[in-house]
Design a protein that fits this description.
Elements: H1 2-22, E1 28-30, E2 34-37, E3 45-50, E4 56-60, E5 65-69, E6 76-81, E7 96-99, E8 105-109, E9 114-118, E10 124-129, H2 136-139, E11 147-148, E12 154-157, E13 167-172, E14 195-201, E15 208-215, E16 218-226, E17 229-236, E18 244-247, E19 253-257, E20 262-266, E21 272-274, H3 287-304, E22 324-326, E23 347-349, E24 351-352, E25 365-372, E26 378-382, E27 393-397, E28 403-408, E29 413-419, E30 423-430, E31 433-440
């Protein structure tokens, strides 16, 4: 009996030790050296398209242009812009740049509801219509990771909310004589969902089907009024628990789950596989931690200004991480409130959710943090749970859903794409401008 208990105890200890070893995270290694850097600067570069010859197309959404760099990033040519410099117009809205067949690319312009097919030389070869005009804004949103699969079907995130692409909790506050417009009550804002569908559409048949669902950031909206007008603002959650997704070169769709950090795979043959949980240093947030986190985000925002990148560390403000825009009008539609008070001018304001609404554990990543390399690995920019000197750290996940590496990139950089020969493209932010850098993976 005693021998049996000892054997069971030894087996349990061995199993525990094996599980701990299996869940151990790889040590952090440094990314390879930067080999070239663009002299051209950008205010907001979102999306690149590396080609097999080393050239790279760049989507400069702030400059409203698509340009092609040579392999050394030293020279570039205009492919499309918002002036008469080219015959291809980049409309007043943001568009997305995605890889198409072989070395061809597609620039999706929601303003004209069209898709420009760009050949390997950087010339617009033809123009196609967006297959679903009602989804033009979602398909052409550069923050939504739109892509084509191996068979040429278009994969994109459907709307998932009317305000900034995220869900919303709406709180209506009545105030001021008669409310906005004298109606006695402020307008109700529909509550968008906290999740979004990933859709797949065939360009020939225009048949669409849903391939998955992801959790997206929630945005709380608040409406107020007084005797000088009405205002609407959104409350930002700087630490949302979200999902992410990406398409690998072989056509698999990876859904990265943020609640317990694992990958759900939709393979090209239609089979679905759920990988094991990825080891992560989960950090519990006490009430004091939550207050300190919100205070640090507010302080960072004040130091960097309203147009600065998201102070929480997310790669961008897409996917619901929006600023607050308040628009004021006088009650009753007149030039001012009671007594002739002038209406307030439009204002920009940034608010954050109460600390108690933050999650109890720091999530592993933000929205739009996942990139797939040319070998089918997922690179996920993780949220640091402890003080780590240097730049951001990426978990590298293989097609089995296993973490194989942890790679740190230089300070102030984020990965925007991967090229042939082990090339990694980095966005280097320096204040209000950015440059594109090319580094080696090792």
């Amino acid at each position: 009996m005693i021998r049996s208990v000892l054997l069971r105890g030894s087996a349990l200890l061995a199993l525990t030790a094996f599980t701990a070893a299996a869940q151990q995270r790889p040590p952090i290694r440094q990314l390879g050296a930067v080999t070239s850097k663009s002299a051209e600067t950008f205010a907001n570069l979102v999306g690149i398209r590396p080609l097999s010859n080393g050239a790279v197309l760049v989507n400069d959404v702030a400059g409203r242009r698509v340009i092609m760099f040579d392999p050394a990033l030293s020279k570039f040519t205009l492919v499309a812009d918002s002036t008469s410099a080219t015959s291809n117009a980049y409309s007043g809205r943001m568009g997305s740049l995605v890889a198409f067949r072989a070395d061809s690319s597609v620039f999706i312009d929601p303003g004209s509801v069209s898709m420009l097919v760009i050949d390997p030389a950087g010339k617009v070869a033809r123009v196609m219509a967006i297959p679903r005009a009602e989804d033009a804004m979602a398909i052409g949103n550069p923050f939504n990771a739109t892509a084509f699969d191996a068979t040429g079907r278009l994969i994109y995130r459907m709307g998932g909310g009317r305000f900034g692409g995220g869900g919303a909790n709406v709180r209506t506050i009545v105030g001021g004589p008669g409310g906005a417009g004298g109606a006695g009550r402020l307008p109700q804002i529909p509550e968008p969902p906290d999740s979004a569908f990933i859709a797949r559409v065939d360009l020939a048949s225009r048949k669409v089907d849903t391939v998955g669902v992801i959790r997206i950031p929630k945005v709380k909206f608040e409406v107020k009024s007084d005797d000088r007008g009405m205002s609407m603002s959104s409350l930002i959650n700087p630490l949302p628990v979200v999902d992410d997704w990406a398409i690998t070169p072989d056509g698999a769709i990876a859904f990265v789950r943020g609640r317990d950090y694992h990958v759900d795979w939709l393979n090209p043959d239609g089979t679905r596989v759920t990988s094991a949980k990825i080891p992560f240093d989960w950090q519990r947030l006490t009430d004091e931690d939550k207050v300190a986190f919100i205070d640090s985000v507010k302080a960072a925002r004040e130091r960097q200004g309203a147009n600065a990148p998201n102070p929480s560390g997310a790669p961008n403000l897409g996917g619901g991480m929006t600023q607050n825009i308040q628009i004021f009008t006088a009650p009753g539609g007149g030039p001012g409130g009671p007594g002739g008070a002038a209406p307030r001018p439009p204002q920009l304001e940034v608010n954050f959710i109460p600390p108690t609404d933050l999650p109890d554990y720091k999530p592993p990543f933000f929205a739009n943090s996942t990139r797939a390399d040319l070998e089918g690995n997922l690179w996920i920019r993780t949220i640091p749970t402890s003080a780590i000197a240097g730049g951001p750290v990426y978990d590298v996940i293989n097609r089995k859903g296993e973490i194989v590496e942890r790679v740190q990139i230089p300070v102030g950089r984020s990965i925007v794409g991967f090229g042939p020969g082990g090339a990694v493209y980095l966005l280097n932010r320096d204040g209000a401008t950015s440059t594109l850098e090319k580094a080696s993976v090792r």
